[in-house]
């Protein structure tokens, strides 16, 4: 009986030590992870002209998307010229016309809040346009290139949808009713364009590319 109790006590002690060791190891790993995170993550110092409130952020967003739309106007004709499917070519031509309207609406947005229309470089759109240009070089003309053009165009649309949705939300909070109306009009058209591109891709275009 005494031997059994000794063995039981020894097993219990060993188990407790193992648990303690595991806990200690887990704590140590967490501390190491925090330490490693601290070496790479730093607090970003704001620029001198950084947005100080939602109004500033809203205006910065308008400048950003105005640059993006103007840059897109220059890029879309190249996409249209390199597309093969007639439906795709027509949809790009239509979106060129819509984009011209979007630029005008943005200028009207600035006017509605009493500000001069200004464009500020949009790094995101610049990258998307560069990616679209590289797709043309990396695909053979025909269905494969058309599929690539649609993929590039939809990435642009998704960025614009996110941007216009965010700006509309800001305009609503700030009470910019006219700007909100204009932004929602454009948001609706961007979503419709995205849906059109999806329908074109689904009408055997992707299958032909295969």
Automatic annotation (TrEMBL):
PANTHER family reported for this sequence: PROTEIN YCIF
Disordered: region residues: 1-45
UniProt xrefs under CDD domains: YciF
Biased composition (Low complexity): 1-28
Protein name: Ferritin-like metal-binding protein YciE
InterPro entries, A to Z: DUF892_YciF-like, Ferritin-like, Ferritin-like_SF, YciF
Pfam families assigned: DUF892 (PF05974)
Source organism of this protein record: Sphingobacterium nematocida
Regions that span the bilayer: none
């Amino acid at each position: 009986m005494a031997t059994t109790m000794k063995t039981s006590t020894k097993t219990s002690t060993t188990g407790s030590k193992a648990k303690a060791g595991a806990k200690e190891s887990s704590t140590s790993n967490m501390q190491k992870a925090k330490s490693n995170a601290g070496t790479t993550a730093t607090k970003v110092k704001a620029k001198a002209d950084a947005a100080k409130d939602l109004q500033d952020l809203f205006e910065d967003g308008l400048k950003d998307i105005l640059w993006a739309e103007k840059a897109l106007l220059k890029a879309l004709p190249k996409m249209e010229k390199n597309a093969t499917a007639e439906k795709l070519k027509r949809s790009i031509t239509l979106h060129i016309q819509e984009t011209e309207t979007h630029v005008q609406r943005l200028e009207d947005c600035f006017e509605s809040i009493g500000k001069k229309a200004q464009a500020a470089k949009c790094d995101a759109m610049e990258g998307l346009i560069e990616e679209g240009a590289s797709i043309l070089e990396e695909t053979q003309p025909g269905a494969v290139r058309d599929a690539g053009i649609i993929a590039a165009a939809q990435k642009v649309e998704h960025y614009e949808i996110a941007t216009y949705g965010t700006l509309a939300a800001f305009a609503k909070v700030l009470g910019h009713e006219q700007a909100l109306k204009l932004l929602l009009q454009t948001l609706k058209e961007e979503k419709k364009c995205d849906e059109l591109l999806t329908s074109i891709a689904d009408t055997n275009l992707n299958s032909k590319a295969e």
